[in-house]
């Protein structure tokens, strides 16, 4: 019997027991044994749960039990979660996690400790919920070199943008709906300000390069300023607006960023709606590969945790591309200001023709957007270095500027 412990019996932790019950037969075929939840660590009691007798409040109970070989950390945060993770690893136990914040901020230390102890630290559930893109990167794409990543990595923001596009809702109205449906927290800042996607693109880039970037080096922009007018403009341009986490990797450098972008309708990412996620990888051998599915939720995320449990228990994890991360050195992540984008621009003006002529003088050959509302100049710039674009928009040249949104980089 394979004994495991669950740290945190909330949405995901509770889902783990449900997935184990639903897939008991399939899991036994894979690991050739029964997976048994021996302990659940939580500060609360769960008297109505069939697992009530397994709840403990002291991590040392789990750490000191030699029967427990795998610990599932679903607590969130980087305080107690980090301490308990290290305690489990130093006790010779493998750890699987759904905690993207912990992986993104302390992954280097944890992986070093796991290597020293000869155990696994697995994080499939930390990015994309139930989408198996991390395992895909460590197995199917292991012989290739990933040069670009673009992903819709947050179901909450994708739901909001979908409602804005399909129903013409304002950001505020779509957010309120997402909160009513339980997709968004009472404090949605981690989602709508891009922090959740930031952590996820850091993790995916680290798996691709073995270099974990510092969050301060990852440009992150809120999507709260996106309006129905932006959605309408994107549709007239031939695409839509998505909040993407992106990475561009070349040799000894990478650029990581999270921001709203115009995505062309020809991209499969443009057609991913509601709470679904999609993550696209580009490499010289396999070209474009995209993973798609439910990026969050009780059972999809819990299912990814259980998949890691099975990988650790069966020995599959030992045969995957190892995660041996280093903290990215200074200069590895290029300044965001060096990136090149085209931009959608909307300026309120009484002299539309003059504004478009002014834009041509600044940027060169621009593309005027058809169907612009009366009193607005809308245009797409040619590819421009971010620093130069920022300088152009900072002055009085484009007085009346209402919106500037980047076009998804190729």
What does this structure look like?
With 410 residues, the chain is an alpha/beta fold. The protein is 38% helix and 25% strand. It is built from 15 helices and 20 strands. The chain has helices at residues 11-22, 24-31, 59-63, 80-90, 100-117, 133-138, 155-167, 171-180, 189-192, 195-209, 228-237, 298-314, 316-319, 352-363, 386-394; strands at 2-7, 35-41, 55-56, 68-73, 94-97, 121-122, 148-152, 211-212, 219-220, 239-250, 253-264, 276-283, 287-294, 326-327, 340-341, 343-348, 367-368, 376-380, 384-385, 401-407. Strands 7, 9, 10, 11, 12, 13, 16, 17, 18 and 20 form a ten-stranded mixed sheet that branches. A six-stranded parallel sheet has the order 3-2-1-4-5-6, sandwiched between helices. Strands 8-14 form a two-stranded parallel sheet. It starts with a strand and ends with a strand. The model has no long low-confidence stretch (mean pLDDT 95).
């Amino acid at each position: 019997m394979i004994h495991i412990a669950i740290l945190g019996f909330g949405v995901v932790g509770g889902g783990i027991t449900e997935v184990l019950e639903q897939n008991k037969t399939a899991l036994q075929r894979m690991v050739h044994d029964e997976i048994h939840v021996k302990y659940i660590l939580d500060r609360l009691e769960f008297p109505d749960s069939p697992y009530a007798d397994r709840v403990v409040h002291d991590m040392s109970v789990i750490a000191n039990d030699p029967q427990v070989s795998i610990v599932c950390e679903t607590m969130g945060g980087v305080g107690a979660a980090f301490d308990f993770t290290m305690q489990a690893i130093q006790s010779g136990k493998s750890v699987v996690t759904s905690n993207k914040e912990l992986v993104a901020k302390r992954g280097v230390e944890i992986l070093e400790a796991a290597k020293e102890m000869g155990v696994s630290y697995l994080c499939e559930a930390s990015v994309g919920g139930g989408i198996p893109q991390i395992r895909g990167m460590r197995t199917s794409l292991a012989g290739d070199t990933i040069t670009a990543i673009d992903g819709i990595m947050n179901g909450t923001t994708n739901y909001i943008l979908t409602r804005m596009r399909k129903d013409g809702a304002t950001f505020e109205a779509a957010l309120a709906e997402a909160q009513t449906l339980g997709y968004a927290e009472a404090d949605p800042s981690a989602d709508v300000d891009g922090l959740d996607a930031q952590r996820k693109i850091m993790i995916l880039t680290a798996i691709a390069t073995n270099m974990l970037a510092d969050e301060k080096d990852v440009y992150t922009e809120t999507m709260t300023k996106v309006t129905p007018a932006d959605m309408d403009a994107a549709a007239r341009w031939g695409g839509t607006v998505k909040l993407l986490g992106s990475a561009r990797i070349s040799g000894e450098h990478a650029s990581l960023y999270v921001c709203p972008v115009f995505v062309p309708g020809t991209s499969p990412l443009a057609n991913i709606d509601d709470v679904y996620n999609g993550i696209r990888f580009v490499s010289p051998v396999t070209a474009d590969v995209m993973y798609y599915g439910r990026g969050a939720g009780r059972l999809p995320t819990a299912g990814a945790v259980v998949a890691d449990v099975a990988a650790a228990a069966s020995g599959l994890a030992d045969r995957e591309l190892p995660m041996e991360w280093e903290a990215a050195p200074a200069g590895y992540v290029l300044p965001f200001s060096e990136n090149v984008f085209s931009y959608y621009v909307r300026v309120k003006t009484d002299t539309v023709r003059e504004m478009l002529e002014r834009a041509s003088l600044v940027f060169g050959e621009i593309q005027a957007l058809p169907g612009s509302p009366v009193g607005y100049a809308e245009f797409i710039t040619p590819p421009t270095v971010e620093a130069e674009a920022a300088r152009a928009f900072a002055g009085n040249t484009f007085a009346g500027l209402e919106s500037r949104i980047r076009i998804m980089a190729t």
